[in-house]
Amino acid sequence: MNLESKIPEGPLAEKWARHKFGLKLVNPANKRKYEVIVVGTGLAGASAAASLAELGYTVKAFCFQDSPRRAHSIAAQGGINAAKNYQNDGDSVFRLFYDTIKGGDYRAREGNVYRLAEVSVNIIDQCVAQGVPFAREYGGLLANRSFGGAQVSRTFYARGQTGQQLLLGAYSALSRQIANGKVKMFPRTEMLDLVVEGGKARGIITRNLVTGKIESHSAHAVLLCTGGYGNVFYLSTNAMGSNVTAAWRAHKKGALMANPCFTQIHPTCIPVKGKYQSKLTLMSESLRNDGRVWAPKTKEDAEKIRKGELKPTDLKEEDRDYFLERRYPAFGNLVPRDVASRNAKYVCDEGRGVAATGLAVYLDFADAIKRDGRTTIEAKYGNLFEMYEKIVDDNPYETPMMIYPAVHYTMGGLWVDYNLMTTIPGLYALGEANFSDHGANRLGASALMQGLADGYFVVPYTLGDYLATIGHADKLPVEAPAFKAAEAEVKHMVDRLLSAKGERTPEEIHRELGHIMWDYCGMSRSAEGLKKAKGMIQDLKKEFWTNMRVVGDAEEMNQALEQAGRVADFIELGELMVDDALAREESCGGHFREEYQTEDGEALRDDANFAYVAAWEYKGDNQPEVLHKEELVFENVKLTQRSYK
Amino acid sequence: MKINLKVWRQKNGNAAGKLVDYKLDNISPDMSFLEMFDVLNDELMHKGEEPVAFDHDCREGICGMCSMYINGRAHGPQTGATTCQLHMRSFADGDTIIVEPWRARAFPVIKDLMVDRSAFDRVVQSGGYVSVNTGSARDANETLIPRTIADEAMDAAQCIGCGACVAACKNASAMLFVAAKVSHLAVLPQGQAEASIRAERMVAQMDAEGFGACSFTGACSVECPKSISLDHIARLNREYLGAKITSEAV
Ligand SMILES: Cc1cc2nc3c(=O)[nH]c(=O)nc-3n(C[C@H](O)[C@H](O)[C@H](O)COP(=O)(O)OP(=O)(O)OC[C@H]3O[C@@H](n4cnc5c(N)ncnc54)[C@H](O)[C@@H]3O)c2cc1C
Ligand code: SF4
Ligand code: FES
Question: According to its UniProt record, which residues of this chain constitute the active site (chain A) (predicted)?
Answer without folding.
Answer: 337
